[in-house]
Design goal:
Length: 396
């Protein structure tokens, strides 16, 4: 690859997204890595560590993205790409020993919660869910008092949480988890390494739904894990190889192409999210707003201490309007939009909006009238004009 580890370590994230993961600087090498479509590789004799061997073990198209993501998250080891964010969740959860205790935010992404709850139902692990913003409550779940109380084997962090945007005190919780020997995994999907670096804050493993900001164009489904710990990485790689949730080469290539503009996209969407949150926060049709960038948000100070910016997801709670309940008013708002796309997912160039409780798996503690906005890179005044005309329909 084109950057030495020393050179990469000296570069800012804004440069790394562009410069990392390039082929060697040799005459007539392409400047972009090629897509390799092959399910197997030439070879004779026993397979060693450096051998690719077979398409489920390795694909050269994964390498540049894995290298770039590892460097962006501040790991000396490359990341690991997976077929989806949830495939990465599954692999990370495989690190919990049989019967071990998993502490998870009660407002984690619903898919992660469903997976953990199903593993718990089958008796594979004990699941303890907790408000991740309540540091003392989380510490009690990590290391409960009493002679028979079992400490956690894994602390799962998601910060900001999806969709409540709760902020965990990552350094304090990672320290408490390490005191009892637990592994700390942080889902960094909402922030990306440009906004938050969980490894530097004490996490052992970082998880991404690459589907979202990293790829950034709502055209691939992929996931990734990064860890600087060689033993943990080896266990995760083994899990990926044996369980088979590997990335397709086209998707891996698209993700790297998307990554090249991550810094610009994040800057633009964060700026717009702040403007929109300030306007929505004082709108009479909105009865609640979650956005850590607002000075009165409960997570504001913590987010300021551990993030560079506040992300570009804003959640609003829509007030009842005339005969309409809050959730019905929220649905009407979403249907009245002409520019924002009514669709699930987030982190793409296009602004997406949805009422979260339309998903049956969403935790019941997420308010029925909560609408999640994923702010894209369109002109902020166009985005506001569309929101405003849709909010105006609730008046009549
Ligand atoms: N983590 C978070 C925070 C998410 O929002 C999602 C998906 O929405 C996932 C993980 C799962 O990722 P994927 O949909 O790529 O499987």
């Amino acid at each position: 690859m084109s950057l030495t580890p020393q050179h990469a370590a000296s570069l800012s994230a804004e440069t790394l997204v562009v410069a990392s993961g390039r082929p060697p600087r040799e005459r007539d090498e392409p400047v972009n890595p090629p897509i390799v479509l092959s399910s197997t590789y030439f070879g004779t004799g026993p397979l060693g560590d450096g051998d690719r061997g077979y398409g489920r073990y390795a694909n050269p198209t994964w390498d540049p993205f894995e290298e770039a993501l590892g460097q962006l998250e501040g790991s000396e080891l490359p990341g690991l790409l997976y077929a989806s964010g949830l495939a990465a969740v599954s692999s990370a959860l495989s690190l919990v020993p049989a019967g071990g205790v998993l502490v998870m935010p009660s407002h984690s992404y619903s898919g992660s919660l469903v997976m953990a709850a199903e593993l718990a139902q089958k008796g594979f692990l004990e699941l303890r869910t907790v408000d991740i913003a309540d540091t003392e409550a989380v510490k009690e779940q990590i290391a409960p008092a009493g002679p028979d109380a079992r400490p956690a084997s894994m602390l799962w962090l998601e910060s900001p949480t999806n969709p409540m945007l709760g902020i965990a005190d990552i350094p304090a919780l990672a320290e408490a988890a390490h005191q009892v020997g637990a592994i700390v995994v942080t889902d960094n999907t909402f922030s990306t390494p440009l906004v938050q670096q969980p490894l530097a804050l004490g996490s052992d493993v970082v998880l991404h739904s690459v589907t979202k900001y990293l790829a950034g164009h709502s055209d691939v489904v992929l996931g990734a894990l990064v860890t600087p710990n060689p033993d943990i990485r080896a266990a995760l790689l083994h899990h990926r190889t044996i369980h088979g949730a590997i990335a397709g080469p086209f998707e891996a290539w698209l993700a790297l192409r998307g990554l090249r503009t991550l810094a610009l996209r994040i800057q633009r969407s964060q700026d717009s999210a702040t403007v929109l949150a300030e306007r929505l926060g004082t709108h009479p049709r909105i009865e609640g707003i979650n956005f850590p960038g607002l000075a009165n948000d409960p997570g504001h100070q913590r987010a300021k201490a551990q993030m560079k910016g506040f992300g570009s997801i804003v959640c609003i709670q829509v007030a009842p309007a005339g005969d309409l309940s809050g959730p019905d008013a929220a649905d009407k708002l979403v249907r009245a939009l002409q520019l924002w796309l009514p669709a699930t997912s987030l982190g793409g160039v296009e602004s997406l909006i949805e009422r979260r409780r339309r998903h049956t798996a969403e935790p019941l503690s997420v308010p029925e009238n909560l609408v999640r906005l994923s702010v894209g890179i369109e002109n902020v005044e166009d985005l506001w004009a569309d929101l405003k005309q849709a909010l105006d329909t609730l008046d009549g």
